[in-house]
Amino acid sequence: MLTRRRLSVIALIITVTLSLGASRKMNDAKFAELCGKGSAQSVSQAIKNGANVNAKDDEGVTALMYAAMAGKTDTLKVLLKAGAKIEAKTDDGYTALMAAANNGRTEAVDALLKAGADPNARNNDGGTALIGASDNGPNGYTEVASVNARDDRGNTAILLAAIHDNAEIVKALLEAGANANDKDTSSTTALIHAAEGNNTEATKVLIEAGANIYAKDNNGDTALIKAAKSGENETVRVLIQAGARVSDKNDDGDTALIKAAENNRTDNVITLLEAGADVDERNNRGNTALLHAATFGHSETVRVLMRAGADINARSNDGMNAIMWTALISTRPEKASATINMLIDAGINLKVKAQNGMTVLDYARKNSKLKGTDVLRRLEKLTK
């Protein structure tokens, strides 16, 4: 039989229990984090305890976005069934679909699309989910998104995929109707981006799709010039085999050979010479490949160019020859010494003067890095 005192105790227990239950309701930030790290069951229980399905963290990232970024498809379904807003956006305009696409979460992308997410929604930079996905793994939603959509920086999905060497995505986008000769706001094509980024496979895919190998960006650089400067030798070979012209110049008059020499890409220098590049071709400043290589003390590249018959006494528009440039610019004594000694041994003219009247000895003495070196003493002895 229940006494009045016992009834009072039971009432107190019920009150405390209800109070504890209410306290288990998660705040928005913790619930959003749970959706990215916890199980679908724990998320479902939190919702039953009163968690806000449209919760956001301090940066405006919703619970649905957390689940999308983590690829938690089951959690996405729980949230959507409970009323989560599928098109909610962060302050930067990103949606859950963009979050999934940017992180390569293909299954989450599919689930969101089936739930009605807009594949052509744009963030504040004009980017779509497909554009964001271009630097991740293969995806299966190119058919429902606009493959030629462009963000505010002029990038399309195929441009970004080429930059990030996703040859499979490049191929998928081309099959879905992407333009192989698409350009960004600097007139840089997907092929130029791929070549510059050492992305040989993407380069091959684009060439096979009919990309223009002669196209130039706003600086006049072709894919071959970009590849020669920073790309892998295989990419250079692929472009040459496809018909790229080694004689093409950019707006500064630089050829692929000059850029390769300047950046000490000896392997590319050899390949370009084998393909018929003119070893003594000059740019707008009168510099040859040898002058550029010597300027930075690239001794091995200098050796290759001299063996190919480069004119060691060639002078730039200001009257400076290779050894002058080495003596003036090089900041590493060991590299400068190797290059200077090589040029001396090859018989370069040490008496010639630049337009300002200075000789190689003047430049060497001016370079503090050469002070007290054997090569400076050699120059002093030879130019007495």
Describe this entry's structure for a reader.
By secondary structure, this protein is mainly alpha-helical. It folds into 3 domains: 95 residues, Ankyrin repeat-containing domain (Serine Threonine Protein Phosphatase 5, Tetratricopeptide repeat); 123 residues, Serine Threonine Protein Phosphatase 5, Tetratricopeptide repeat; 117 residues, Serine Threonine Protein Phosphatase 5, Tetratricopeptide repeat. 51% of the residues lie in helices and 0% in strands. The chain has 22 helices and no strands. Helix 11 runs antiparallel to helix 12. The chain is elongated and about 95 Å long. The N and C termini lie far apart (123 Å).
Number of structurally distinct domains = 3
By helix and strand content, what is the structural category? mainly alpha
Q: What's the average pLDDT? A: 86
Total strand segments:
0
Shape: elongated
Helix content: 40-55%
Proportion of residues in extended strands: under 5%
Could you spell the SSE succession in H and E letters?
HHHHHHHHHHHHHHHHHHHHHH
Low-pLDDT segments: 9-23, 137-144
Short précis:
The chain contains 22 helices and no strands.
Fold blueprint:
Layout: H1 4-23, H2 28-37, H3 40-48, H4 63-70, H5 73-81, H6 96-102, H7 106-114, H8 129-133, H9 157-163, H10 167-175, H11 190-196, H12 200-208, H13 223-230, H14 233-241, H15 256-262, H16 266-274, H17 289-295, H18 299-307, H19 322-329, H20 333-345, H21 360-366, H22 374-382
Helix pairs in contact: 2-4, 3-5, 4-5, 4-6, 6-7, 9-10, 9-11, 10-12, 11-12, 11-13, 12-14, 13-14, 13-15, 14-16, 15-16, 15-17, 17-18, 17-19, 18-20, 19-20, 19-21
